[in-house]
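Worked Example 4.2. Consider the chain below.
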Amino acid sequence: MIRCQGLRWGAPGQPLTPAVDFELAAGSLTAVIGANGSGKSSLLKVIAGLQKPLAGKVSLEVPRRGSLSFLPQQQHLDRQFPISVQELVAAGFWGIKQTPRQRNERLQTVLADWCLNGLEQRPLMALSGGELQRALLARMSLAEAPILLLDEPHAALDEDGQALLWKHIHAWHAAGRTLVVVCHDLAAVRQHIPRALRIKSSGCVLAPSTELIVQQPITQVA
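Applying the procedure from the previous section yields the following structure tokens:
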């Protein structure tokens, strides 16, 4: 479970919303929607512990260290860092105890799942945006974290890549994981995600996605 109590976040002295309280149940799948600059990405960072809240607290009911995995936006990554696709994806094994053979078999399976065969030794700087996004998602596939936070996971993906993304999101959800997904594609939210947290300057509303999107249309961002 993710529980936020009296939570305010944003730049120092500039909270994006009044203090808010909400809970996301264990095993839930929730979209985070709102206008540009409303605080969607920074909320995920606060939940992940990467950014301190201005007030209030976030409580995570998780069984162990390494129980949360966070997918950042691509612009926060150093594309010049000297690492290959295979090395990037294999970082998802952090904290997981397996034999070298088990790791290699699992790694090859995940690379194939995300259509990364033939790109294993390619450096990050040589990847397209879609290839890099699939590599980042493949890294998340290796993690065994029960809480997954995804910040615009559909970014840079073509139609086939988006189909792969939603296939895996539904599989993770079916496995009992808790997922929070920042998404600007409201048609996809309506189709794939049952509940949404809408962020506005006046506060947050957690409700079925179809209700929120019908009641308060939000301009889609390409």
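Residues 118 and 209 are 38 Å apart (CA to CA). Residues 216-222 have pLDDT under 50 and may be disordered. Compare this with Example 4.1 before moving on.
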